[in-house]
Amino acid sequence: MMQLPALEDFRKTNGPTYGRPWSVNPAGADFTLTIPDIDVLFEDDDAWKPHPESYAMAMQVMEELDGIKQKAAEYLARIVDAERHWMHGEAYFNHVECDARDERVTVAMSWEADIYAEWSVTFVWREREEGALEYRPISMGFRNR
Fold first, then answer.
1. CB within 8 Å of 58: residues ≥ 6 apart
2. Residue 86: left (phi > 0), alpha (psi -120 to 50), or beta?
3. Measured between alpha carbons, how far is residue 125 from residues 14, 34, 54, 60, 97 in Å?
4. DSSP string spanning 7-18?
5. H-run or E-run covering 76
6. pLDDT per position in the chain (145 positions), as tens?
7. Whole-model pTM?
8. What is the DSSP-derived secondary structure letter of residue 62?
C-alpha cells in the first residue's frame, strides 16, 4: 500500500517551475511525486518551503490513482493510436505532479511494451461543494526518455 510521507520529507529538486519543486518517492510506489514551492517568501523567512495546499491535494490524488490511471489511458486512446504507439500491457506512473495553485494534476506514464515512451496527461482537479472530487483531462504530452 502506498503511503504519502510527511511534508517535511519532501526534498528540493531542480526543475523548470518558479522556485524549485519539491519531490518525494512515496513508500510502496515506483514513481516520484512533486509539489511546488510556496507562493511567496515572508520577510523573516529566507527559505523556500513546499506548498501545503498542494500537499493536501496530493493526499487526495494518492487515493484516486487507479481512477486517474484509467481516465488517462482512456483519454490518450481517444487521441492516439494505442496499437501503433506500443501502449500494450500494464501502464505505470513515472511521475505525478500536484499543483493546487492552478488546480492541476499531471501524471507521466509508460507502458510495459515501450518503457522509453512517456505519455503525460494533465487533469483539472476540483472539489465540489458536496465534497465529491472532480478531475477531468485537459491536455496530453509525449516524450522519449
1. 4, 33, 35, 96, 98
2. left
3. 25, 15, 11, 10, 12
4. GGG-EE---SSS
5. helix 65-79
6. 678 888 888 888 766 544 568 899 898 888 999 999 876 655 555 567 889 999 999 999 999 999 999 999 899 888 887 676 667 678 889 999 999 999 999 999 988 777 788 989 999 998 777 777 889 999 999 888 7
7. 0.85
8. H
